[in-house]
Write a structure and sequence with these properties.
The protein is mostly helical. It is 67% helix and 2% strand. Strands 1-2 form a two-stranded antiparallel ribbon. It is globular.
Length: 458
């Protein structure tokens, strides 16, 4: 990605292509970063779709019906993105790096180093609270639902993702409290796991990524932009080596991509190439979406993924993770293309996409609990337990309903889910903001009226 920018910039300089007065419309579009909210909203929806796919259509996860066998339309590249949760989590992390570094990079480029450092410190502090508080509240909600037995229908269904992520109630309320504390703690420890809300496995890495942003920019904030970008690029490649030691080999690469994109956003390169956006954006987006479609298993079954598999063994860093290398690279190309294209920025800034972005985190936190309770009730309310054989074992489960039932139930479920997430975003999230602001007032310098240690007056 960085080399591509260098090649393009060299061409621009040789061709003497500079921003023209008629580019004011492009400049206005390129100053708007609300597209990040739109793309984040799309990513949240596709993460939810990936869990629905794992629950009701696991055949989409594999690329075909057998080696060199026929492939359904939904198993083909781009269409299979509904099953590619890892790719969309990568988009989340890239956008986290982008948004968390955006203002600090702008201040640093203006020579305002002290405000940039203050912004980094404040942003990292707020980020911790704004991740941990909603996640804890969502865990408590799911824990309570578990103890009431509301996940029992999902647990007895033949929907894979539902019955594998539905925990059993605790043996007593005393034990339940202990289980709740354990779940909250293990959400933020190495190899995170939350039995009450499985999607929260990614939150530790989002928090980790925000700390990467703080540390990387703290070290490089005094550098000139070109040297800061070069240093972040070195960290990007270096992170492929040490990232696996932190539990996830892709977090560093994605976060550092986000910082590079923030630098690119504040440069003149997007404006210089804005007029060429209709020509370079479509092929780059198509390439990115194909990479993001790379299956997590049986990659050698179809030619397109087998080709990527062979190239993986040639070019991938030693500690890269096969199932996530191409989806991660695709997510990076996609976000790079959006930053460079005013047309894509405008498209992703549509008011409905911005609304999705507003509810993206509540949707990420709540969709699992709603699927295991409300959706399971709607789908299996009238079903009868049936003996089902799986991997040589027999189980009594509710069979998956037919297509007509899904066509009726899904719109009802999505309407209720999006209403609930909108309520959470508008009525619950502000309370987390208030708690965060109160913590700032108490803990930041100037807010503590009675310091633990005496302060020197000289």
């Amino acid at each position: 990605m960085p080399s591509a920018v260098s090649l393009l910039s060299t061409y621009v300089e040789k061709a003497n292509i500079n921003p023209a007065p008629s580019d004011n419309g492009y400049r206005k579009a390129l100053q708007d970063t609300s597209w990040a909210d739109g793309l984040r909203g799309i990513a949240a929806v596709f993460v939810m779709f990936s869990h629905m796919t794992m629950a009701f259509a696991r055949w989409i996860v594999i690329p075909s019906y057998g080696k060199n066998g026929p492939a359904h339309l939904m198993q083909r590249p781009v269409f299979r993105l509904v099953a590619q949760g890892a790719a969309w989590v990568a988009v989340f992390i890239i956008l986290s790096g982008f948004v968390n570094s955006l203002k600090a990079v702008k201040l640093a480029r203006a020579g305002r180093i002290e405000p940039a450092l203050s912004n980094l410190a404040t942003g990292s502090f707020r980020r911790s609270f704004r991740l941990v508080l909603p996640a804890t509240a969502a865990t408590i909600l799911s824990w309570f639902i578990t103890q009431t037995g509301a996940y029992d229908t999902a647990k007895k269904s033949n929907a894979y993702w539902l019955y594998t992520t539905s925990p059993n109630p605790s043996s007593s309320w005393g034990t339940a409290v202990e289980d709740l504390v354990h779940a909250i703690r293990t959400t933020w420890t190495y190899n995170p796991e939350n039995p009450y809300d499985q999607p929260q496995w990614a939150l530790l890495y989002l928090l980790q990524g925000s700390m990467f942003v703080f540390t990387a920019l703290l070290v490089t904030i005094n550098l000139a932009p070109r040297w800061r970008v070069l240093t972040i690029m070195l960290l990007y490649f270096w992170s492929w080596n040490w990232g696996i030691k932190l539990g996830d080999p892709m977090v560093g690469a994605n976060v550092f991509t986000g910082i590079i994109l923030a630098e690119l956003n504040h440069s003149e390169y997007p404006l210089r190439f804005a007029r060429f956006s209709p020509f370079f954006a479509p092929p780059l987006v198509a390439c990115a979406l194909v990479f993001m479609s790379f299956p997590s298993q049986f990659q050698d079954w179809v030619p397109w993924s087998n080709l990527l598999l062979r190239w993986y063994w040639r070019i991938a860093p030693q500690n890269a993770e096969l199932m996530r290398f191409w989806p991660t690279l695709g997510a990076q190309i996609l976000t790079f293309t959006v930053v460079m294209s005013p047309h894509l920025r405008r498209a992703l800034s549509h008011r409905w996409l911005l609304w999705l972005g507003k509810i993206s985190f509540p949707l990420y936190l709540l969709h699992g609990s709603f699927m295991r309770s409300l959706l399971a009730w709607l789908l299996f309310a009238r079903a009868k337990l049936t003996e089902i054989e799986e991997e040589g074992h027999k189980y009594m489960r509710y069979p998956l309903p037919g297509a007509p039932t899904f066509l009726v139930v899904m719109p009802i479920f999505l309407l209720i889910l999006f209403t609930a997430t909108h309520f959470w975003a508008t009525k619950v999230e502000p309370h987390f903001g208030t708690i965060t602001k109160t913590a700032e007032d108490i803990m930041f310098v100037g807010g503590d009226k009675n310091p633990t240690l005496p302060v020197r007056k000289d």
